[in-house]
Amino acid sequence: MSLLCPRKIQEEGLDVQTTRNGDHYGALIHHLALVRNKRCLMTYVYSRAEIISSLIWKVGPVLPHEIQEKLSHLEEDYFKKHSAALKSYMSRLDLDLTVDMVPPKDPYIQVRVLDDIGVVLSDDKTTNFARHSMHFLKRTDAEQFISRVGRPAA
Amino acid sequence: MSKYYDIDDIIADEEVVSVIFQKAVSGVGIDPSSETDNVEVGSKVELPLWLAHELQLRQAVSMNVPSCFNQKTRLEIQADSACVNLRSRCPYFYEFGSKIAPLVSDRTIGPLLLSAFKSRYKEVLTKAHTAAFSAASKYPSLLTKEENNLYESAQSSMAAFKKWRMGGPRFQRASVLGRKRKPIE
C-alpha cells in the first residue's frame, strides 16, 4: 500500500511534516475504524465481565452447568478469582453478605408451629411451641427453628 | 471517557450523517458511488457519526444536518410533540442531537431538543401512571430509547408504590439459610 509514503509526498513538492494528502486521510479513516472496533470489542468483554461478577450475587459461588459452558476459560478464571476475593473479604468481616439482600422490615415475626417442639427457653421468657400454635417472636429467636424445618413461616 | 463502555452511547454513535468530502481520500472504499477505493472532493457520502465527527474536526468533511432534525419533524413537534414517533426517526434522538449540535452550523437543534423533551416528558409520566397495567398500549413504540427507560421506571415505581400501599406480601419466604448478622457474642 502506498499509504504514508514520504517519498510520494516529496515528489509532489510538499512538506512531509505538515502535508495532508489523500493518503493521510485514508490512513486516518483506517485508524479511526480500528479504534472504533477496539471500543466495541472492549465493551463486549467488559459487559460480559460485569454480568459474570453479578452472577455471584444472583446464583451463588457455584455456577450451573448451562452458564458455565458459555464462559471462556479466562472468564471462568475471573469468576473463580472474584468469588474467592469476595469469600476472603466476607470471612474477614465475619459476615455473609450474600444473604438477606432485602433488610427485614420488623424485628418481630409471627410464626405458626408446624411440629411439636415443646417448651423452649428464649432470652426473656419460655414459650410452649405446641403444634399449630401461633407466636409472636423475635426474628432471631425464630430463625433457628425455621432453618431446622426449612419451611416458610407466616 | 466515562462513556467508553456505554453500549447505548456506542449505538448512538452508529447513526448515519450525510457528509460532503472537502479533501480527497485514497485507499478506503467508503463511497459506494465510486468504483475505485478513492473518494473525490465534493462527493456526498453517508457516514456513521463516529467517523464523520473525527473527520469534521480535521476539516476533511462538512456535515449536513441529519434528516431526523428536518423541518417536517420540527413542525410535527411544534404541533403535538407527544404524538410524534421519534423512535422511527431516530431511537437515540436526544443523544444523537446533542452530539450533532456542536458540529453543525444549525444553532436551533439545542432548543428543539429541549422543548421536545420537556413537553414529551410530561406525557410520558402521565401515560406511565394511568396506563400502568394495560400491556397492550401502543404508546411505548413512539418513544426513544431514553424516554422508554423513563416510562418503564415510572411504571415500576408506580407498581412499587401500589404494593407498598397494600402493605406488602403477607407471607414471607424464610430467608435464614445463611447468616448476615454477626453472631451475638
TrEMBL record, chain A:
The keyword Nucleus applies. Pfam families: PSF1_C, Sld5. GO terms for cellular component: GINS complex. Belongs to the GINS1/PSF1 family. One of its GO terms (biological process) is DNA strand elongation involved in mitotic DNA replication. Its main location: nucleus. This is DNA replication complex GINS protein PSF1. Residues 22-93 form the GINS subunit domain. It is found in: Nucleus. Gene3D superfamilies: 1.20.58.1030. InterPro entries: GINS_A, GINS_bundle-like_dom_sf, GINS_Psf1, PSF1_C.
TrEMBL record, chain B:
GO terms for cellular component: GINS complex. Residues 5-55 form the DNA replication complex GINS protein PSF3 N-terminal domain. The keyword Membrane does not apply. It is found in: Nucleus. Pfam families: PSF3_N, Sld5. Keywords: DNA replication, Nucleus. Residues 69-165 form the GINS subunit domain. Its main location: nucleus. GO terms for biological process: mitotic DNA replication initiation. PANTHER family: DNA REPLICATION COMPLEX GINS PROTEIN PSF3 (PTHR22768). Belongs to the GINS3/PSF3 family. This is DNA replication complex GINS protein PSF3. It comes from Morella rubra (Chinese bayberry).
